Each structure stands twice: as C-alpha cells, then as structure tokens.
Amino acid sequence: MRGSVAAGIVLAGAAWQGSPAPDERYLTWTMEQVESVGRTAYKTGRVGGFFNTRLLKTERSYNYKLAATWLTPEVIRATARMLQVRSRLDREEARKLVEEAEQIADAVFIIEIDPREGSGVIPHDWEAFLQPKARPEAAVRGTLNQKLRGVRALAGVLRRNYDYDRFWVTFPLSDAGSPVFTAQDRTAELVVRIYDKEGRVEWPLAARQ
Fold first, then answer.
1. What is the Cα–Cα distance from 111 to 44, expressed in whole angstroms?
2. What is the pLDDT of residues 48-100, one digit of tens each?
3. Which site among 10, 73, 106, 203 is 20 to 30 Å from 39 CA-CA?
4. Which of 97, 107, 121, 122 lies closest to 168, judged by CA?
5. Is residue 155 part of a domain?
6. Are 112 and 186 in contact (CB under 8 A)?
7. Which range marks the domain in which residue 146 is found?
8. Number of domains in the chain
C-alpha cells in the first residue's frame, strides 16, 4: 500500500489526518490489508496506574482501560473498502463514503474507555489532548462530536469491544495558524485525562522533508 500507516502517520501542510492517497488502489485491497491498516492505527493504554489503590468510596473507578484509533485517510479508505465488500457496494458508493468522511476539517479519533472497579461511570468532564511527544505546550484540546458515529467510513475497521464506551473526538492540526506537528516531531501523543489521572497512547510520525 502506498503511504502505509505502518510507516508512520504523515502530516503535510493543512491536511488534517494525513496525506490523502492519490489513487484508488484501496478499492482492490484484500481484507488482510484492510485489517492490517486498522490494527496499526489502533493503540491501547490505561488512565491511572495498574496498581492504583482502590477507593474507599465507589463514586469513581480506580483506573480506566483506554483504546484509541486515529482515523487517517488510509483508515477511512480501509473502512470504505470493508463496507464495499460486506455490503456489496459498487465502486462509486465506496468513493462517496470516503468523500463524506473527509468533509471533516479536523483530525478524528475514536476514543474508547472502560472503567475498572468502582462506579463504572465515565465522568462528563473527561478531557483529551493531542500533542507532539514531550511537547505539551503544543497540545490542542479535543472536541467531542458523537454525530460522527453516523458517518460510516468513520466507524473504523476492527470489531468493537462492547466493554468500552466509544467517543468520536476531533482535534485541529493547527493552533493560531501554526501546525501542531513540526518537521522535527517524530511521535504524536494522545493524552486522556479523567479526574486527576492521565493515560497516553502514541503513533509514529513519518519523517518529512
């Protein structure tokens, strides 16, 4: 595949999730290729330490399992290809799924959270930030947009784990006119904060000239 996610997420100019594929080879990808793209974009972590002390009160969970998928152009195309095969779509219908998903101006992530012991409730005021690794001063805050669950090519490739609650979150890739990621940045980091605990997952950024 051209510009595989496995080589790192590519960010160029004002493009939001990455460099769009200039051809339509995704319309012939095998399901093995589709699943490979989905697995590479999917990262797991934890909010709060594994050995955090259990609370005497149960209004909060003591930690949260975390998973996130960066819905890059390649992931969008993989999702459209999967739907093309499963739903017997023709090529034009698959193209329209991609076009619909890429109307979103910002980077889109699916963030999944599963509370461990405690209340089992995810607070409404949890936060997510996207930043270059080790540069929190460049972080941008995510915006929850659950309407995106209805955009079929933004559903991701992998089978859902129903233990997790799913959230669609968008992030701008520029702040006050400056790109969030520079040519020197090599790793993108997603930070999820719940109460006073934070969890992180990361993706490599492809080298850019």
1. 10
2. 875 555 554 555 667 899 999 999 999 999 999 999 999 999 999 999 999 99
3. 106
4. 107
5. yes
6. no
7. 5-202
8. 1
